[in-house]
Design goal:
This protein is an alpha+beta fold. It contains 24 helices and 26 strands. The strands form seven sheets. Strands 14, 15, 16, 17, 18, 19 and 20 form a seven-stranded antiparallel sheet that branches. A five-stranded mixed sheet has the order 3-13-12-4-11. Strands 6-5-9-10 form a four-stranded antiparallel sheet. Strand 15 and strand 16 form a beta hairpin. It is globular, with a radius of gyration of 27 Å. About 30% of the residues are buried.
C-alpha cells in the first residue's frame, strides 16, 4: 500500500470513528487506537506533503461571501467537437495513441496551487471568464489542500456530486427545491456563497488535465502526467490508453460501466496522449483539434402524443406526464414519460396528436427528445385540479415554473400522504395499496392517518367490497395491528414532514433522545444545530409541530401506537460481523437488493455500492458475467459469491 492509499484509508477510518462517536454515541475505536491512527496520519501528511480537505487534522472553518468574484482565464476553455460514431474516433486517432476517459457531467473547475497550497479555484464560466469559488472548493471531500510540489501548478478537473448523494440531498430538500440532475445540483452547490452548504453535500473533484507545473520537466504523455497528479494526491478521472484498433472495444467497456457508475457522465472524451502533437494541431474558432467528445447514441423512436396527464403529489405539485403510443426502447416497451414541469411543457410546444421523438436518458429514464410537429402549443395549463376541482397556480421553482393545486384538502394529496404513511420505510402496513386507499376514502372509512387504525369498525362493509373477503380483511387488520408497534424514526418519517426523509428522521430522534415530546417542543434554533440539518429542515420540523391540525392528528393517532427505540441487534459472533459486501445483478432467493442488504446488516455486515480493496465479497448470481463489478472484483482478488453460496456460508 502506498503512502497516498494509507492516507485515504486512515482518513476514512478516523472520520467513521468520529461520526459514530458523536452521532450514534458508540465507539468503534478506543481513544488510544484513535490517537495512534491520528498520529500516523499526521506523520504521513508531513512526510508526503499531501493533506486532503476531509482529513481530521484539518479544522476548516466555513466561509460566507457577499458575492462571487469574476476571474478571466489565462487561456480559454473551449467546448469539444462531438460525435456519436466510433468510426469517427478511429479516424480521429489515425496512427496516434490516445486517452479515452469519462466526460463527467458536473462543473469544470480550474485549480491553482502555489508553494504547495491551494491558492485559487475558478469555474469554467463562459470559457473566457469564470467565478472564484475557492471558499467552496476548500471543503471538497477528496481535494488536497496541500501537495508536495512547491512550484506553481495549474490543472483542470470536474466537480461532481455522485448519484447516491444527489438522491439523499433531493430527499432532504423536498419537491419544491429538488434539482433535476446531479449536474445542476453540483453547479448550484459550488456557486453558493456559504461554504458550509458545499461541505455538507460531499462534492468531489476529479482531475482531467495538467495545464502547467512551474519548474517541472513534464512528460510528453498526458497519461503519465495524470499519474503524477495522482501521486500529488488528486483523484483523476478514470481513463484508458487506446489506439484506432482498440478504441471501439474500450468504448464498449465504458458503456458497460454506466449502470454501476455512481457519477453522472454524458459520454466520453478522446484526446491525443502526446502533448507536443496536441499543441501542433492548434484549434478552430470553437474547438480544440486534439480532443473530441463521444456522445452515447441514444436509441430513438418516433411516436404520437395521445394525452397529457397531471399527477398531484402529497405536496400539491402537479407533474405533467406525456402518454404516447407504445414504442420499444433499450429492450423494454415505453408509453409514458415525465415532462417535468410547465416550463418544459411550453418549450416542447406539445399538442395532442403531435409526432414526437422519445428516448431513454442515460439509457434509463424515458424522455421526450423533440416535437417533430413544431407548432405553437395550444395546450391549456389546467386552472383546476383534476382530482379535487380546487384552483391551481403556477409557481416559480429552481428548475422552472411548476403547477400546484392550492387546496390543502385535495383528495390526491391525501391519497399520496396516506400511501407514504403506510409505505415500507414508514409504518410498513401491507394490504393498503393506493387503489385500496382510494376506495376507503371514497366510502368514508378513512380521512386521515389515525382512521387507518379504526378500520376494524368497518369490517362488514370491507368484507363485502370487490377484491376483499374475510381472509384478506383479517390479513389487513393483522398488518395494521403489527404496525402499532413502531420505531419512532419510522413514525416520524411516516408523518410526511417536508424535507424529512428516513435518514433525517433518525438524526432528529437521536438528537432528542427518542423522546416525542422533546421533538414536538424543539425550537428552530436547536434543530439547526443537528448534524446534517440546516435552516430549511429545522424550519420545516418546527413549523410542522406548531400546526394545530398536525398536533390534533398526532394526539388522535398516539392512542393506537406503541413507540419504541430502534432495535439494538447483537452481532457479536455473527459470521457477517465486520464484513463488507457489494450486491449486483438479479436476485433469486431475496425479493430485492434492499431485503438482502437488511439481512446482511442485521448480522453486523455492511453493504456498499462499489467494489474496492476493502470489499470482502461481491454477490452476483452470474459469477461468470463480464459486468464491470465482476471485472473489478477479479482485478482486486475479491471473491464472488452467488446467493446460494452466501446463504450456505453466512446465513444459516
Amino acid at each position: 500500500m502506498t503512502d497516498r492509499e494509507r492516507i485515504k484509508e486512515l482518513i476514512k477510518k478516523l472520520n467513521e470513528a468520529s461520526k459514530v462517536y458523536y452521532q450514534e454515541d458508540r465507539e468503534i475505536l478506543s481513544n488510544q487506537e484513535y490517537d495512534a491512527l491520528y498520529d500516523e496520519l499526521a506523520a504521513l501528511e508531513e512526510k508526503t506533503g499531501i493533506v486532503l480537505a476531509n482529513s481530521p487534522t484539518q479544522k476548516v472553518g466555513y466561509t460566507v461571501l457577499s458575492n462571487l468574484v469574476k476571474v478571466r482565464h489565462e487561456s480559454p476553455i473551449l467546448s469539444l467537437n462531438k460525435t456519436k460514431e466510433t468510426e469517427k474516433l478511429k479516424h480521429f486517432l489515425g496512427e496516434k495513441e490516445g486517452i479515452l476517459s469519462w466526460k463527467l457531467d458536473g462543473l469544470t473547475i480550474v485549480l491553482k496551487y502555489h508553494k504547495g497550497m491551494l491558492e485559487q479555484a475558478v469555474t469554467r464560466g463562459n470559457g473566457e471568464v469564470g467565478e472564484d469559488v475557492t471558499h467552496n472548493v476548500r471543503v471538497f471531500r477528496n481535494l488536497p489542500l496541500s501537495i508536495p510540489f512547491q512550484g506553481e501548478l495549474v490543472l483542470r478537473g470536474e466537480g461532481v456530486i455522485p448519484y447516491s448523494e444527489f438522491h439523499r440531498i433531493n430527499e432532504e430538500l423536498g419537491e419544491e427545491e429538488t434539482y433535476k440532475n446531479p449536474r445542476n445540483l453540483c453547479s448550484g452547490t459550488v456557486r453558493q456563497l456559504n461554504s458550509e452548504i458545499a461541505a455538507k453535500r460531499n462534492v468531489q473533484f476529479y482531475a482531467f488535465t495538467l495545464v502547467s507545473a512551474e519548474g517541472k520537466v513534464l512528460s510528453d504523455s498526458k497519461a503519465e502526467n495524470m499519474a503524477w497528479l495522482a501521486e500529488m494526491g488528486f483523484s483523476v478521472v478514470e481513463h484508458k490508453r487506446v489506439t484506432a484498433k482498440t478504441v471501439a472495444e474500450e468504448v464498449e467497456w465504458f458503456r458497460n460501466q454506466i449502470e454501476d457508475n455512481d457519477i453522472a457522465s454524458d459520454g466520453l472524451v478522446l484526446t491525443f496522449d502526446s502533448i507536443s502533437y496536441s499543441e501542433s494541431l492548434g484549434r478552430t474558432a470553437k474547438f480544440p483539434k486534439d480532443s473530441i467528445a463521444f456522445k452515447w447514441a441514444d436509441e430513438m423512436a418516433e411516436t404520437t402524443l395521445r394525452q397529457i396527464e397531471w399527477n398531484t403529489s402529497r405536496t400539491g405539485l402537479m407533474n405533467p406526464v406525456a402518454v404516447f403510443d407504445p414504442v420499444e426502447l433499450e429492450g423494454s416497451t415505453v408509453s409514458r414519460a415525465s415532462v417535468h414541469n410547465v416550463s418544459v411543457l411550453r418549450e416542447l410546444k406539445l399538442n395532442i396528436g403531435d409526432k414526437i421523438k422519445v428516448y431513454k436518458a442515460n439509457m434509463i429514464i424515458p424522455q421526450i427528445a423533440e416535437n417533430l410537429t413544431g407548432e405553437v402549443s395550444r395546450l391549456e395549463i389546467p386552472g383546476r385540479c383534476f382530482v379535487c376541482g380546487g384552483e391551481t397556480e403556477v409557481r416559480k421553482l429552481r428548475e422552472g415554473e411548476a403547477l400546484y393545486c392550492t387546496n390543502p384538502n385535495c383528495r390526491a394529496q391525501r391519497i399520496q400522504a396516506l400511501s407514504h404513511f403506510v409505505s415500507r420505510d414508514a409504518m410498513n402496513i401491507e394490504g393498503l395499496s393506493e387503489e385500496t386507499l382510494k376506495k376507503f376514502l371514497d366510502r368514508g372509512f378513512i380521512e386521515n392517518y389515525p382512521d387507518i387504525f379504526r378500520l376494524a369498525e368497518h369490517e362488514k362493509e370491507i368484507c363485502q367490497m370487490e377484491g376483499f373477503g374475510e381472509k384478506s380483511y383479517q390479513n389487513l387488520i393483522a398488518s395494521i395491528d403489527k404496525a402499532k408497534d413502531v420505531e419512532l424514526p419510522n413514525f416520524i418519517y411516516a408523518l410526511g414532514i417536508n424535507h424529512v426523509g428516513l435518514r433525517n428522521a433518525k438524526l432528529l430522534c437521536a438528537h432528542c433522545d427518542y423522546d416525542l415530546e422533546r421533538i414536538k417542543q424543539a425550537e428552530e434554533a436547536e434543530l439547526v444545530e443537528v448534524e446534517g440539518f440546516g435552516e430549511i429542515i429545522a424550519h420545516s420540523i418546527a413549523h410542522y409541530f406548531r400546526g394545530a391540525e398536525h398536533l390534533h392528528l398526532l394526539e388522535d393517532g398516539m392512542q393506537f401506537l406503541r413507540l419504541h427505540l430502534p432495535e439494538q441487534r447483537e452481532t457479536e459472533g455473527s459470521p457477517l460481523n465486520g464484513l463488507t459486501f457489494v450486491i449486483t445483478g438479479d436476485l433469486e432467493r431475496f425479493p430485492n437488493r434492499k431485503a438482502l442488504q437488511e439481512r446482511i446488516e442485521q448480522g453486523g455486515g455492511k453493504v456498499t455500492g462499489s467494489v474496492t480493496k476493502k470489499t470482502d465479497f461481491l454477490i452476483n448470481n452470474d459469477i461468470h458475467s463480464a459486468s464491470a463489478k465482476n471485472k473489478k472484483a477479479a482485478e482486486m482478488g475479491v471473491p464472488i459469491l452467488s446467493e446460494e453460496e452466501l446463504i450456505q456460508r453466512f446465513l444459516q
